[in-house]
Amino acid sequence: MLSYTLRRIALTVPVLLGVATLVFALIHLVPGDPAEAMLGESAPAADLDELRSRLGLNRPLLVQYGEFLAGVVRGDLGTSFRYRTPVRQEIVQRLGPTAQLAFAAMAVAVIIAIPLGVLGALHRGRPIDQAAMGLSLIGIAMPNFWLGPVLAIVFSVDLGWLPKSGSGTPAHLVLPAVTLGAALAAILARMTRASLIDELRELYVLAARARGVSRGRAVVAHALRNSLIPVVTIIGLQLGAVLTGTIITETIFSWPGVGRLLIQAISFRDYPLVQGCILFIAVTYVTMNLVVDLMYGWLDPRIRYQ
Amino acid sequence: MTRRFGVLIVVGVALAAAIGPWLVPHDPVAQNLPLRLSGPSWQHPLGLDELGRDLLARMLAGARVSLLVGLSVVTISAAAGVLIGAVAGYVGGALDTLVGRLMDVLMAFPGILLAIALVAVLGPSLRNVVLALVTIGWVGYARLVRGQVLKVRELEYVQAARALGASMPRVVARHVIPATFSSVTVQATLGMAAAIIAEASLSFLGLGVQPPTPSWGTMLDAGRSHLFDAPHLTIVPGLAIAVLVVGFNFAGDALRDRLDPRAT
Fold it and tell me: Could you say which DSSP state residue B260 is in?
């Protein structure tokens, strides 16, 4: 297990270096002069020079790259142009709300998906199955930037049950979490259904029934438990979609997370903050994938020897 | 049945986009402020938007943008991905390792994050959206083709071509790439759905097509400010995106069944 862990971590290092290099390159892809793009064409030359030296743009490219990498290793992502505070501080402040939203969305997805998938599997081919799978198809097809406003129309504007946007109370979390979790719920419901149908055909389920175990117990305690293994895999694979989904969901509902910070930074041309947010989201994604892979290796020893 | 329905949706939307200006007599950018936000009527079947522009005319013009972006992204990504994947897989060695590392790095950015980053620095425009989506889009094709090439290059007919003295570019172009054609076609159809969603997402975030050019994503974004007084401005473009995306997904499945009977 130790050699598998070390091998898997060693494979991640060049990816992280590549990610950091791409993020470093971003500011140099700005057409023309990045300082001019940030301050405007009519900015005084002295201000432009000051910004260039603050961003380190007047130094040789290799020096800039070296300092950027050294900063990343230290956790120093530069200073925000707009807020004049360390980028790291801005991101850390919004980390909690983003994590809260992502976990709530995953919880919503699991709570909706598992019963829907089980219903589908137990009533395979019957109207209840078709309804459950039809619902999940709608969940997959609906982009979250549409579902969010539609949920707001129904539950905030028409019914007045939930707040339209903002944060502060658990009620504020409901619409963003459902918006972000719907697509994942749809995928998980299909996976649960397919996986449970396979498990229900296994002999051990029949044996349990022959021993007098009730149908409900055979399904829940025996088949469902095993059928959830691929479902957990899919949750791991969908982490990326959830992370990118937070960007749009936070923008729709004015949720004070890292995704909204990124979009605000883009609109203010706060390139250091844009770089910081992109790097943070990508590194989080790579790290989560690493953790998921290590967990598979731990759960399923066959993977370690591949 | 549902899969044929997908092809029907795609053909229907493409036709509507192509003959849109003849179907609706209104200019999609012409404003009629006194009638802004008015609901459906005989003259304006889907109503008018926040600047008094005909919503149906804008939907049809937006369909052109969606399909144009989808087609451009898929065509360029597929061409680049097939070429890079085929050459890397066939040549192997250091080139393959280098391409593999580059793909790993690009795939380390979840979803459209890298596209958001690129458009953020390059500036929002239709051209930059296509460029950003191609930058992440080619990887899927390259991985698919590389994997297939590793299998195909060991097949006897490819070995025979090599033994007969065919050059590397000829073997790749004549024997290796055609073998990957059916899976690339399926991937491209599903890629249309992904590109349409990605364009709409970027436009929704204000990073894609810029006003007054109509795009379903920008229309949705504009409609958000009128959830109370004109919810149809949000519902109509969102529904159109969802239907077209389902259409391409079904069409992709239908194509897979047709081209690869083993997959079903």
Answer: -
Asked if the model's pLDDT at residue A301 lies above 60, the reply is yes
Enumerate the β-bridge partners of residue B48.
B54
Comparing C-alpha atoms, which of A257, A255, A249, A251 is closest to residue A277? A257
Residues B149, B89 contacting (CB under 8 angstroms): yes
Q: Is A23 exposed, middle or buried (0-12, 13-18, 19+ CB in 10 A)?
A: buried
Within a 10 A sphere around the Cβ of B260, how many other Cβ atoms? 12
Distance CA B89, CA B145 (A): 8
Nearest-5° Cα angle at A132, A127 to A135: 120
Could you read off the pLDDT of B178-223 as tens digits, one per residue? 878 888 888 888 889 889 999 989 988 888 888 888 888 888 888 8
Burial class (CB in 10 A: 0-12, 13-18, 19+), B262: exposed
- What is the distance between the alpha carbons of residues A271 and A135, in angstroms, rounded to a whole number? 41
Q: Which residue of A has its CA nearest to B218?
A: A145
The C-alpha angle B240, B242, B248, rounded to 5 degrees, equals 100
Contact map slice: A 16-75 vs B, CB within 8 A:
16, 18-19, 21-23, 26-27, 29-31
Closest chain A C-alpha to B227 CA, distance in angstroms: 6
Q: How far is B32 from chain A (nearest CA, A)?
A: 26
Alpha-carbon span B174 to B162, nearest angstrom: 12
Tell me which DSSP letter residue A86 carries: B
Q: What's the whole-number mean pLDDT along residues A12-30?
A: 89
Residues of B in contact with A278 (CB under 8 A): 109, 113-114, 116-117
C-alpha closest to that of A249 among B201, B56, B12: B201
- According to DSSP, residue B24 is labeled -
Q: Determine contact, residues B103/B185, Cβ cutoff 8 Å.
A: no
At residue A241, the pLDDT reads 82
ipTM of the complex, rounded to two decimals: 0.83
CA angle B203–B207–B209, rounded 5-degree value: 50
DSSP state of A95: H
What does the pLDDT look like over B67-125, one tens digit per residue? 999 999 999 999 999 999 988 988 888 999 999 899 989 988 887 889 999 998 888 88
Q: Which of A16, A266, A284, A285 to mutate to test the interface with B (most CBs of B within 10 A)?
A: A266
On whether the CB atoms of residues A102 and A95 are closer than 8 A, the answer is no
State the nearest Cα–Cα gap between B215 and chain A, in angstroms.
Answer: 14
CA distance A239 to B111: 10
- The Cα–Cα gap between B21 and B122 comes to 32
